[in-house]
Design brief:
With 732 residues, this protein is mainly beta. 2% of the residues lie in helices and 37% in strands. The protein has 1 helix and 56 strands.
């Protein structure tokens, strides 16, 4: 992820929130609401490998080979040691529960190995729903849910801190949950009900951090507190020894470098507690930090900071993990260290001396080549706040980054431990009609990928020349599929073209000035001779679109194009382009290859945050307009007129794939509602009827960004998610 650009995943997640705010009206009894029975479909991830922020990793202390991971927007996972891959645990969360795909914390019960708890909630903002706690008796195979009366923030600042959820060490029926704005909660019935721990003395502030971690130290419980003011009187660590009374830990570190307690780990052999600190919650914004250890028996604090941040080398400290087998062996991570690069420090003598593991690290990213980010060698990592040491293997260390989870068995050779874990926030998908690749994807944070195979990470990694941190658009010429263009947030240009179907790229020779600040979606006409580039800043500000007829060498402004609209090329006629003005509910069209646009159909739904205009392949003027819960509209005259499709009452995104045997029209896929739920549907009869093709165990939260079928394989569909990567379904 480029440090100078906003996280596209965070922007997309906020967009997902806005898209899901409006309550879908109750299902009417109209006949068009009926859908056929769900056919048999198999759903899998198109493999990229990780691609998101791993915010927590927890080895089970009592079961060899059992571990769990949490992510900021992509749910939770369980490690299958025999298969050496992660199993997703929260894919059953559907459209209405999109805000629960961010995992604030997880907890296990050392005395009951099959019990697992998740605290879920992506945003703590006013527009987001409340959080929830899921509890399982079978390691996440099935769940029981309790909705909370408070909000959690799995994708807020401070999401890489320690676990805010804990099973009490004295009583497995008692759980503690630290919140950002509502203090400390307690449950005495294994998470079924929750109430405020009224004796907890700290008062939340507007910073939205509150309790940053909960940790069992023998029979005591410690709580990190992130709402202190950083002064000499600020309290950042509390504890209880009886489960009722909480007191401040005496003589704790103070000052800027110890302002914010990030994580903690307890060395039970040496009876010492290690705490990492920073001056901000992270993962961004930290400039100083420290590491301290505390001996509860004597009350003594010791500064054991491995390296001091300073001018030209600013950073905080993040992850901390102790070796359960060897006293005094601890691993900590730096965080937000952009100048020298983040590292792990390891000590075997209780913090008297430390060794940086980065300098001797041999990184093998052959399984996920995108981790080179267009360079010759991959980075050791950034946003390192999740660190864990296997309690059964002292040299088995893992650490999370903003894009993967690295692991080692010898403290020297590191490779991604990421199979099965996909956290990409996907923006757009193309399935080419010919060529090696069946899929080209554009995503937040990892740019554009050319998928030679769906079962392996793209061998070319991120599309280079230039590399994009986040993509904003991708388009392919319908009659000349070797022509592909892409746009996004790049450090060396914001647009590029390919003449070999997306295998290799070259940057546009020039670009409009606004492109560097507001790269938006792009379209190319049917023969690839004309490009239309729309500009939308990540904060939503819209700008005039531009046109190029020389492959990006020169650009001219299109004053008649509706600002901020997504351009759509007619797939059969290279002189035609379309755009939908969401502000006025008007369809605009160009008949002169994008030189000018004029209004056609008006009076369509306007002001809604979720619109998607699609052109049916191989047909001129056959347009489909998805308008959130206002339904689905179709035009067969190039947008002169639209009629409402009666077979569904909510449509979020729509695409096309190979027609069924004997059918004259392409298969139509959509994320929408024809019954009582929002789901993934296919129609083989031009949207007269629909069949649901996903099921209740495969929902993936918010899925309204993009869907497309495969033009070469009937029944295969590719679905963009906001945190669970690219899902693809096939008939079985």
């Amino acid at each position: 992820m480029a440090a100078s650009k906003p996280s596209r995943r965070a922007v997309l997640a906020a967009s997902a929130a806005a898209a899901a705010l409006t309550t879908v009206p109750a299902l009417t009894t109209r006949a068009h609401a009926a859908a056929q029975a769900t056919p048999a479909y198999r759903w899998r991830n198109a493999v990229i490998g990780g691609t998101g922020f791993i915010t927590g990793v927890l080895f089970h202390p009592s079961v060899r080979g059992l571990a769990y991971a949490r992510t900021d927007i992509g749910g939770a996972y369980r490690w299958d040691d025999r298969a050496a891959r992660w199993t997703p645990l929260t894919d059953q969360l559907g459209w209405d529960d999109w805000n629960l795909l961010g995992v604030e914390a997880l907890a296990v019960d050392p005395a009951h190995p099959d019990r697992l708890y998740l605290a879920l909630g992506t945003y703590a903002q006013s527009w987001a729903g409340n959080g929830a706690v899921l509890r399982s008796e079978d390691r996440g195979a099935t769940w029981t849910r309790t909705d909370l009366a408070v909000k959690l923030g799995g994708n807020e600042d401070g999401r890489g801190t320690g676990e805010r959820l804990l099973v009490d060490p004295r009583d497995s029926d008692t759980l503690w949950l630290g919140t950002r704005h509502d203090g400390l909660l307690k449950s005495t019935d294994r998470g079924a009900t929750w109430a405020a721990a009224t004796a907890f003395p700290a008062t939340p502030s507007a910073t939205g951090q509150g309790v940053t971690f909960l940790l069992a130290v023998g029979r005591a419980v410690y709580a990190g507190w992130g709402d202190g003011d950083g002064t000499s009187t600020a309290v950042t660590l509390y504890r209880t020894t009886d489960g009722t009374t909480w007191t401040a830990v005496p003589a704790q570190p103070t000052g800027t470098s110890a302002k914010f307690p990030v994580r903690a780990a307890y060395d039970r052999h040496a009876r010492e507690l290690y705490v990492t600190y920073a001056d901000a919650p992270g993962p961004n914004g930290q400039s100083t930090g420290s590491v301290h250890k505390y001996a509860p028996g004597t009350g003594r604090w010791t500064d054991v900071t491995p390296a001091l941040p300073g001018p030209g080398d600013t950073f905080g400290y993040g992850g901390v993990a102790v070796d359960a087998r060897r006293a005094g062996t601890v691993v900590v991570s730096t965080n937000n260290r952009w100048t020298a690069g983040d590292t792990l420090y390891r000590t075997t003598d209780g913090g008297r001396t430390w060794t940086s593991l980065k300098e001797t690290a041999v990184l093998d990213v052959s399984e996920t080549p995108f981790l080179k980010w267009g360079a010759d060698q991959p980075k050791f990592g950034w946003w390192i706040q999740a660190v864990a040491v296997d309690p059964y293997d002292s040299k088995h260390v893992v650490y999370g980054t903003g894009a993967t989870l690295y692991g080692t068995r010898d403290l020297t050779h590191w490779a991604p431990r990421i199979r099965g874990l996909e956290e990409t926030s996907v923006i757009q998908l193309i399935s080419p009609p010919v060529g090696e690749a069946h899929l080209i994807s554009a995503s937040g944070d990892i740019g554009v990928m050319y998928h030679e195979r769906l079962t392996a990470s793209p061998s070319r990694g991120m599309a280079a020349n230039p590399v994009f941190g986040s993509a904003t658009g991708i388009a392919q010429a319908a009659d000349r599929p070797s022509c592909v263009v892409r746009t996004g947030w790049g450090d060396n240009g914001n647009g590029a073209y390919s003449r070999d179907g997306g295998r290799t790229w070259a940057p546009f020779a020039a670009q409009p000035d606004i492109a560097k600040d507001a790269p938006g979606p792009i379209a190319t006409n049917a023969d690839g001779s004309t490009l239309l580039w729309s500009f939308v800043h990540w904060d939503g500000t819209k700008y005039a679109a531009h046109r190029s007829a020389d492959n990006g060498a020169t650009w001219s402004e299109i004053s008649s194009f509706p600002k901020g609209a997504t351009p759509v090329a007619d797939p059969a006629d290279p002189t035609l382009f379309y755009a939908y003005d969401t502000d006025t509910g008007t369809l605009y069209a160009s008949t002169d290859s994008g030189l000018s646009f004029t209004a056609r159909a008006g009076g369509l739904p306007a002001g809604d945050s979720q619109f998607h205009l699609a052109a049916a392949p191989g047909r001129s003027g056959d347009l489909w307009l998805s308008v959130k819960w206002n339904g689905l509209y179709r035009s067969v005259d190039g947008g002169v007129s639209f009629s409402k499709v009666d077979s569904c009452w909510a449509s979020y995104t729509l695409g096309f794939g190979k027609a069924a045997d004997g059918a004259a029209y392409p298969a139509v896929y959509q994320v929408g509602s024809t019954e009582t739920i929002t789901a993934v549907y296919r129609s083989d009869d031009e949207a007269k009827t629909w069949v649901r093709i996903n099921d209740d165990q495969h929902q993936w939260g918010w899925t309204g960004q993009c869907i497309t079928g495969d033009p070469r394989v009937y029944g295969r569909v590719y679905l963009a998610t906001n945190g669970r990567g690219i899902q693809y379904g096939e008939r079985v």
